[in-house]
Amino acid sequence: PSLHSQRHQFVVDFVRKNKPNKVADLGCGECRLLKRLKFQRNIELLVGVDIDGAKIKKKMQGLAPLSTDYLQPTYDQLHIDLYQGSVTQRDARLRGFDLVTNIELIEHLTLPDLELFSSVVFGYMRPASVIVSTPNSEFNKLLPGLTGFRHSDHKFEWNRSEFRSWCTQVCLDYGYEAEFTGVGEAPQEQQESVGFCSQIGVFQRLNVLPDRDEEEVFSYTLVYSVNY
Ligand code: SAM
What we know:
This protein is an alpha/beta fold. It has a single domain (3-227), classed as Vaccinia Virus protein VP39 (Rossmann fold), CATH 3.40.50. 28% of the residues lie in helices and 23% in strands. The chain has six helices and eight strands. It has helices at 3-18, 32-37, 53-59, 111-125, 160-174, 191-194, and strands spanning 22-26, 45-50, 79-84, 99-103, 129-135, 176-183, 198-205, 221-227. Strands 6-7-5-4-1-2-3-8 form an eight-stranded mixed beta sheet. Helix 2 links the parallel strand 1 (22-26) and strand 2. S-adenosylmethionine is lined by residues 27-29, 32-33, 49-52, 55, 86-88, 103-105, 108. S-adenosylmethionine binds at residues 27-29, 32-33, 49-52, 55, 86-88, 103-105, 108.
């Protein structure tokens, strides 16, 4: 499977194991991860957010129920909402989630925006779990013909130690703990020295800090909503 699909499969596996009821995917793009998550029966509320409204709208109709979905007696209640909005801005409708995923999103943010992202996701949304994936720059030497970043819109690409120190600081600032993994393996003999192609941090909230920022702000625009 493609690297893209492996990252989404990582989230699907996490959802199967941890059974979150409310899941939000930030930087959802063309909703490909959401389309896979809607088949997970434990999910009651599925939300996608992207700054690019046109990109969301391109494929969002694919989230609509098929007539056969209603014929499945085991199909539980599912509500899906898609918002146009920026992860640098707070929106009260994104609070109270069990899981918030950020797949190949943070490297598209400038460092000042990354600070805002941390305060919005970990400080304001405060979900129980957060998944963040981002390129591992140590792997780049194995990508043929690559000079510079993997994508022209990337603002940075971090090695494993840079990613870990960012995650560790977020944990200290906002009361989370993180574990590190990834997807996309190097050939056996290079696995240790370069790591995974995409590095992944899985964060769990520790409930040691009181919620400080509870202001009701609504900055996202609802672009799609469907009930199963
Ligand atoms: N997560 C998707 C996936 O796995 O295929 C898309 C990843 S794509 C590389 C990055 C996405 O982040 C784009 O759809 C882009 O529009 C979105 N994005 C960039 N900056 C954003 C921001 N400040 N707020 C919300 N989304 C943003």
